[in-house]
Amino acid sequence: MAIITRIRTNEKERGFFSVDVAEEDGSEKSLNIHEDVLVREELRKGLELTPEQLGRLHSEASGVLAYNAALRYLSYRMHSVFEMKQYLEKKEFGEPQINYAVQRLKNEKLLDDEVFAASFVRTRIQTSTKGPQLIYRELLQAGVPQEIASRSEDLFPLEDQVEHARKYLAKQTSSVKNKKSKVEARLVLARLLMQRGYAREISDQVLSEITEFLEENEKNALAHQAEKAMQKYKKFSGREFAQKVKNYLYHKGYPLDAINLFLSERIHGINE
Known about the structure:
This protein is of the alpha+beta class. The chain is built from 13 helices and four strands. It folds into three domains: 108 residues, Arc Repressor Mutant, subunit A (Orthogonal Bundle); 44 residues, Winged helix-like DNA-binding domain superfamily/Winged helix DNA-binding domain (Arc Repressor Mutant, subunit A), CATH 1.10.10.10; 45 residues. It has a four-stranded antiparallel beta sheet with strand order 3-2-1-4. It is rod-shaped, with a radius of gyration of 34 Å.
C-alpha cells in the first residue's frame, strides 16, 4: 500500500498542504491537498492509504489545480459557468477536475450566473449604448441560461433605455446625412436601433424626436440626388429628361410634390 512520508504547509497557497506519498512501485509523489480534505481523510505521516483513498487524493489534487486556474481566470473579471468550463477545457483539465473546480467556486459564491448576469448588465449600461435585447443576446452567447438572461431587461430602467437610444441615434445620423430621403433615413436608423437591441417603442420615440432633422436632411439629400440624376440622364431633354429624373428620385423615397417643386425651380421651362 502507499504510505504518507511527509506533510508540510504549502507556503504559496494558504489553506493547502503538500502531502508526500511513497507508492507501492517505489515512486514518490507530492499532492497539494486542502486542509478540509486533510481533516476529513485524517491524513498523517505514516498513514497507509488504500487504493480508493489514494485515488480520491489524486482526484482532489488535480481538482485543486483546476480550481486554482479558475481563480486566476476570475481575477480578471467575472465569468459565467459556461465560460469557466470552456476555459478549463482549453487548459486540458478533465471533466472530474472541472466539475470539482466549478462546484467549489459555486459553493464559495465565486461563480454564480445570476450575479454574473446582473453585473454584466450593469457594466453594459455604464459603458455602452447597447439596448436590452442585444445585451440579452450577449448573455446567451456567454452561456447564461435563458431564464436568467430573460430577466436582464428588468435591470435596465425604461428611462435609461430611452437616453441610451438617443445617444446611439445621435452618433448614427451621420450615416444618412444629406444622403437619404426622410422615409429612407428613418428606415435606416430604425434598423440600426433594432440591431442595437432596442424595442420598436423605444425606436419610434427617439426617431420622433429628430423629425426636424429628417425633414431638413431630406431637402439637402434631394438636391444632392437630383444633381446626380440630372447628370445621369443628361443625354435626354425636355419632358423625357424630367420624367426620368422624377422616377429616379421617387424610387429613392422622396415625396412627389418635393420633387416637382425642386425641378420647377431647378430646371427652367419643363412642363409638369
